[in-house]
Amino acid sequence: EPEVTQTPSHQVTQMGQEVILRCVPISNHLYFYWYRQILGQKVEFLVSFYNNEISEKSEIFDDQFSVERPDGSNFTLKIRSTKLEDSAMYFCASSESLAGGYEQYFGPGTRLTVT
Amino acid sequence: RKEVEQDPGPFNVPEGATVAFNCTYSNSASQSFFWYRQDCRKEPKLLMSVYSSGNEDGRFTAQLNRASQYISLLIRDSKLSDSATYLCVVLLNDMRFGAGTRLTVKP
After folding, report:
1. CB B45 to CB A33 under 8 A?
2. Which of A79, A83, A63 is nearest to A20 (CA)?
3. Cβ distance B74 to B15 under 8 Å?
4. How far apart are alpha carbons A75 and A58 in whole angstroms?
5. Low-confidence stretches of chain A (pLDDT beneath 70)
6. B53/A contact by beta carbon, under 8 A
7. What is the pLDDT of residue B40?
8. Contacts of B69 (CB under 8 A, 6+ apart)
9. Which end of chain A has less neighbouring CB within 10 Å, N or C?
């Protein structure tokens, strides 16, 4: 069964450093997403991406964040100048379509710890 | 009012019990509805989409009432492996997650 993969599984970084979280979406999917989940809290939408551009972004997704699809398979989330409050689980997801009824499938997540 | 609100839980039930989860959403323009389950420190996994006519997948039945902006999930004959947090998810322009309801099924 095809699945979304993410690397690394755990990233520890110092405050102020840049991190890049990587995702390989399911191969025939066209829409890609990043979410975060702070420990003990709900899953929060960050950004959706289609056709090499951002479709939607939340208020969390400020200038500190950027996304890129550098090649035909990878989808990355870059966080510039990390803050302590960026510590969370970051999930990548993909779907065939953005239209109603098309489910999103999540990767296993990257746990980001900012010290 | 929260965008997606779920039963606070936790629900602790014996094996074989029937358990129901409720969810309400605030935006009537919401387009699609889902139930996901999430095990501790794991990713959300799609359990089922929710359709206006109601739908069933084995022991799981989901219902949607657009007029009341209410979604439900019924689990029959619960198994130990059903223990997880159940997330109600609503699609507007993006996916809005409820805080989840924790279920523990005990032997």
Report:
1. no
2. A79
3. no
4. 18
5. 98-101
6. no
7. 93
8. B24, B25, B26, B28, B30
9. N
